[in-house]
Design goal:
The complex is a heterodimer of chains A (about 210) and B (about 170). Chain A is α+β, with helices and mostly antiparallel strands and about 210 residues long. Chain A has three helices and twelve strands. Chain A has one domain. Chain A is elongated, with a radius of gyration of 22 Å. Chain B has about 170 residues and is mainly β. Chain B has a single domain, classed as Immunoglobulin-like. Chain B has no helices and nine strands. In chain B, strands 1, 2, 3, 5, 6, 7 and 8 form a seven-stranded antiparallel sheet that branches. In chain B, strands 4-9 form a two-stranded antiparallel sheet. In chain B, strand 1 and strand 2 form a beta hairpin. The two termini of chain B are about 15 Å apart. Classes of the chains: A alpha+beta (about 210), B mainly beta (about 170). The interface between A and B is medium-sized, with 33 and 36 residues.
């Protein structure tokens, strides 16, 4: 009988640990900006920090899109009405600056565009980090010391899709509701390369900004 | 929308192969001793301990508007739990033309990476650096479930497969 109680306690602990770990891991994934989609309910998660902006937030595969400004003042947007543009449509010869803008308004300081995350001044090679989460070190590194030489634009989205495959034994199925999940995570990269190297900023879908340089 | 991604599976004899769209979510397929593209009938065609499944020919399918899709990476994010006697093998070394899937040791001879490989490991148009410049498919990602006699009876539990790519 004592052995049975030990076994029950052990199973309760395993189950409790599993539930805690599941909840914690799910929360951390969401806060990283990983979208978890349930096939049955079609629910898609967004980071907890976005809750105040959910009404304006368009839950799509694209959290950010680019906007190029030319020296003559004209603007080319990745999405404009029915029009869709990609990297090949950007005329780098005429470029003045290029920015990633988000699908919702950030809680910006007065006077700052609440949708622009980062902007690259194409003429100086310096970044402006307008919103998003970036350390002071990173801001300093991005906003100073441009690379010398003629620039080639670096602009792409790194996309990740993960799907769970397999089956749970029938005897356990009713206790395991997590089969139909897909995990989706984008990162948005903007920068440039010259003969001296490469400098780019990486935006995660939770607004965190990192730098890549070599 | 920019590029739209979905998984695709090719199955059947090489002279009359069928391409099935698997979508992106849910249980895309099951490893089994049948060559088809449904997750449903795995219990009718189980992989007995010590056997291999039929090879599964996957591809990433891309449609929509994009300049280039490249740097395509494939790995297994999580393993079966428990994973006793179970391993997923694949064919990373050569550009994989489609061939009729088999259950023997054939193209799948090494373990699928268990973490982000960091550089492209899935070919497009025959090369790791080629990428796609118009709607189409990656080259084949051939996988196969390999079991040992230690594999327990019953369903395997879940594993998570990941595809990562750059879109410009």
């Amino acid at each position: 009988m004592d052995n049975l109680n030990v076994k029950i306690d052990s199973l309760l602990k395993t189950r409790q640990d599993a539930m805690f770990n599941y909840a914690r891991a799910t929360s951390e994934l969401i806060d990283l900006g990983v979208k978890i989609k349930n096939k049955e309910t079609d629910d898609t998660t967004v980071p907890m920090s976005f809750e105040p902006y959910l009404e304006k937030y368009n839950i799509s595969n694209l959290e950010f899109e680019w906007e190029a400004k030319y020296k003559d003042g004209s603007v080319l947007r990745q999405f404009e009405g029915e029009e869709q543009r990609n990297f090949s449509h950007i005329d780098q010869e005429r470029l003045a600056s290029i920015a990633f803008i988000s699908n919702f308004n950030w809680p910006s300081e007065e006077g700052r565009d609440p949708r622009i995350i980062i902007r690259l001044n194409w003429e100086t090679g310096l970044f402006e980090i307008q919103n998003g989460f970036a350390s002071q070190d990173l801001r300093a590194h991005a906003c100073m010391n441009p690379l010398e030489g003629s620039k080639k634009l670096v602009l792409f989205t790194r996309k990740r899709f993960s799907a769970s495959n397999g089956e749970i034994n029938d005897q356990y199925k009713e206790f395991f509701p997590f089969e139909d999940e897909v995990f989706h995570y984008n990162r948005f990269i903007l920068g440039y390369e010259t003969e001296a190297g490469m400098k780019a900023l990486i935006i995660s879908p939770n607004g965190e900004i990192n730098i890549f340089s070599k | 929308m920019a590029a739209t991604f979905s998984w695709a599976q090719t199955y059947g004899h090489v002279t009359s192969a069928t391409v099935a769209s698997l979508g992106i979510s849910g249980n895309l397929f099951n490893y089994k001793r049948a060559d088809d593209a449904t997750a449903a009938n795995y219990s009718t065609y189980p992989v007995t301990a010590g056997q291999k499944s039929y090879e599964v020919y996957l591809r990433g399918k891309f449609t929509g508007t994009f300049n280039k899709i490249d740097n395509v990476q494939f790995w297994r994010s999580t393993d079966f739990s428990p994973n006793t006697g179970l391993s997923i093998l694949w064919a990373p070394a050569t550009p994989s033309a489609y061939a009729t899937p088999v259950t023997g040791t054939n193209k799948c001879v090494s373990a699928v990476p268990t973490s982000d490989p960091g550089t492209a490991n899935v070919r497009c148009r025959g090369g790791l650096a080629s990428g796609l410049v118009a709607s189409g498919y990656t080259d084949y990602i051939v996988t196969q479930l390999s079991t040992t006699s230690a594999a327990p009876a019953g369903d395997t539990s879940l594993c998570t497969l990941t595809l990562n790519y750059d879109e410009s």
